[in-house]
Amino acid sequence: MTAKFLFCFRYSNIGKTTLLSLISGLLSPESGCILLYGQNVKDDTCHIGYMLQKDHLFEWRTIFCNLKLGLEIQKKETPENLNHIDQMLTKYGLWKFRDSRPSQLSGGMRQRAALIRTLALDPDLLLLDEPFCALDYQTRLSVSDDIYSIIKGEGKTAILVTHDLSEAISMADRVIVFSERPGRILREVPIKFEMENRTPIAARNAPEFKTYFNLLWKELNHHDTLALS
User: Fold this and answer.
1) How many CB atoms lie within 10 A of CB 60?
2) DSSP states of 174-205
3) What DSSP line would sit under 3-68, residue for residue?
């Protein structure tokens, strides 16, 4: 698996979605440029996949037709690419819903489908904008395990935005903490658990979890105190 990076934002309205839009090439920076493999992301976005907060599955299309939408748009509906979708549907437990409509799936299953749709174009970098925020807590825990295993299984690098400190620690290889507006980096913390077969739920029970939580909690509250003084 390649490195997974996770951005943890403490505050709302500091430009987290704007940041992902800049990385994806949807917006242009006021100065400088953002490079991926030495190329300006504005000139080549084929290596980047963007998963939004809502799944945005089209009800009038079957799950399979939803998942191949990006391939249709980019005219890449090759037998190999369509077979790759079928393989992911089987691997990640959605094959029997291949011909179902989105309304027939649970919220967690819809998020899995949305991620598979993003992966269908085989991006090297995944951008995930609070993909679990619309789910209830129990489903959120389960789906975070699902998404983690899919990203790990596909060997992808991901930047994931979240307000949830526990979620950041349990899923990340690195946590980057942002300040309130104007957003700037407060601290970068590498995350490592001495455990085999790491999953987000298992990581929450690891002895290192509490250490990381306290470290980041103190960082955030220290900044809050300074901002109010």
Assistant:
1) 8
2) EEEEE-SSSP-EEEEEE-----SS--HHHHHT
3) --EEEEE-SSSSSHHHHHHHHHTSS--SSS--EETTEETTT--TTEEEE-SS----TTS-HHHHHT
Identify the pLDDT of residue 228.
45
Could you tell me the CA-to-CA distances from 85 to 80, 113, 137 in Å, in that order?
Answer: 9, 10, 29
Tokens of 117: 């749709």
- pLDDT tens-digit series, residues 162-218: 888 899 999 999 998 887 777 778 888 999 999 888 899 999 999 999 999 999 888
Q: What does residue 174 show for φ and ψ, rounded to 5 degrees? A: -145, 135
Extract the tokens encoding 71.
């391939």
Please spell the DSSP secondary structure of 136-159, one letter per residue. -HHHHHHHHHHHHHHHHHHT-EEE
- What six digits make up the tokens of 141? 């825990």
Rounded to an integer, what distance in angstroms lies between the CA atom of residue 23 and that of residue 44?
11
Single-letter amino acid, residue 188: E
Dihedral angle of Cα 126, 111, 167, 20, to the nearest 10 degrees: 30
Q: Would you say the pTM of this structure is higher than 0.85?
A: no
Tally of residues, the chain: 229
- Do 8 and 171 form a contact (C-beta atoms < 8 A)? no
Secondary structure element (H or E) that encloses residue 221, with its range: helix 207-228
Handedness of CA 19, 199, 131, 37 (dihedral sign): positive
The predicted structure's pLDDT at residue 9: 54
